Amino acid sequence: MQTVTEILSDANDALSLYSYYQRLDVVNRGAHHLKVRIYIHNALFVQVNRNELASLTNFVLIFRGKRIYGRDEFQGDWHRHPESNPNYHDTSIDESRPVTLLGFLKEVDRILQNRIFVQTTDCPKTEGKMEQLIQIEGEPKSNEIRKIAAKYIGKGHKTYTPTQVVTKKAEGVYLWNAEGSRLIDFAAGVLVANLGHNHPDFEAAYQKYTAGMPRSSYNTFTEQEVYAAKRLIEKLNCPRLQKLLWADSGSAAIIKAMWAAQHYQPDKRIIVATRYGFHGKKGLAGDTTGDKSANPNVRFISFPICDYCTLVPEEKKRQEEVCKPIYEAELKKLQQESPNDIVLLITEPYLGAHGSFHPPKWYHQLLNRWCDENKVTFILDEVQSCYGRTGEMYAFQKYGIEPDIVVLGKGLGNGEPVAVAVGRAEIIDILNYGEASDTYSGNPRACASILAVLDVYEKVPVVENCRKISPIIEAGLNRLKNDFEFVAFVRGEGLVWGLEVKADKGRTASEIANECVYRCYKEGLHLMGPLAEKVLRISPPLIISEEVAQEGLQLMYNAFQKMV
Amino acid sequence: MGNIRETLIESLQRIEPASDPDISLAFILKSHALEKQRYYRALADYYTKRYEMSPDQFYQERIADKDHSFEDEETYFDWVTALQSINEMEAEIKKLEEIIFDANGHRNFI
Fold it and tell me: How many domains does chain A divide into?
């Protein structure tokens, strides 16, 4: 029979052989015994017990605390616990042969496929068409620009979008390409242009605040900077959010927030991040993005991905009662594994880049309370959600939480590269002169954009408009789901929606998603490249009117009809 | 790896300056082994108190040649593993004590 070393090697191999296994947890290991869990998600995992000296082996597939399939060895004799009756002890000749862990996992794979666990929990990576030079028939001017771009700009600079739109002009919720064709913008940059493009009030205010200003103000203050800070913090209106650090990108602000938290509690090492979040690509922001980290101090915890949940409808009605204890147990285990060693927890209001997953309120409230109880700095990444995207000015208001630090970006400057980490003064102030400085952060033009945005929000009911348009978008997307077989899920809030497509008629989900983006473009609607390769992001500027929202949805409908 | 070893030795010398690094390491490992032994003993005592029988009896009564629950199967595994680990830790502690203490039972120092 396999040694503990061989079993551990098989368990590690499983992570690369089967994409649905998310992580390996060694619960207990001695010279001759081993207990490991290979997780698909919190409630569904394979547990392996092996004791060489006692000749004991248990391979078990566990779902919500119950065995649903297993194979065991007791002192050399094997038996099977069949899926149809998992407590039954089948010792027939066929079922009493020894199995290796990889052999068992092959059996598990078949069970998961049959029970549709895998299709619903796995987000396989599918290769889209990733050639750099895109040429679209009938677009000679755009094609010329695309050719020059392909020659001089590294493709790593952009995320893949099959349309590679060449924008010649922009106004309000519209873009025009090099051919002069008008497009409704359902992307708003990447949820940046909340006020649309060239908003007259914003542009006038921006001109006013930047007139006569220096290009840079490194090591000096300008009125723009200090009044932007004052107004921004007053607007937040949250007792914990008292002082800020500027940054020139969302990920830079995230990193500064984490530096402050680390300096604030220097004896603690462990950084907790919610799995599949996106906080950026650089440094600590990259370390806490996704579900794997090269940083040994990073631990990931589960984030609700409710569309993929395997609860039956009756249980879904009691979601908080059923699911909350699972998340609580995970946090408790984390605290037990690293007592008094957890320095910070970072999360985002909803999973954006992973495909628009929006959690129940109690989830964030649970994290907030756990951080408070365990003296863990709670950092909320609102780079994307801030300034009304969810239907409230800030998502922390919507979710009823009070982070120790909140990070704002994107809509903050309506397109100017500016971001900020705002938090408790005692945490922010822990960083000394120069420890969070850089060349461009807090420059006059960035701060002017913050003031100009705040001016517009005081004059125009931006957030109220978002709340008004939200149900229109939801209804339009649900119409697509009802009428087109390849649409799997619709999820979102405010004006940040995801429409997930699935494989259909021999085409992969990724192929369909890319074709949707392309066909929408041909109809006159701009979408960004799919999230997680199969989720269309619908995130128009927050000032979009009801008529244009309806028109954009109709263009989507027309485009989808051509794909059937 | 060379650097890690050097760092560890330097660290041991700083933390336990009066002791040879090998002896310090043995001392630390012994503390760890004692801690693990305490954990396994508490686990084994818990099962003995709860079921009022030996693990062999538990196996015969609740698992052998009959349908059984996953909970019982795991209890048996954890129980047997705990008892076995108590003895394994005992053997480790003895080996480490031979390094730590001289023939008169005094701790070795430089």
Answer: 3
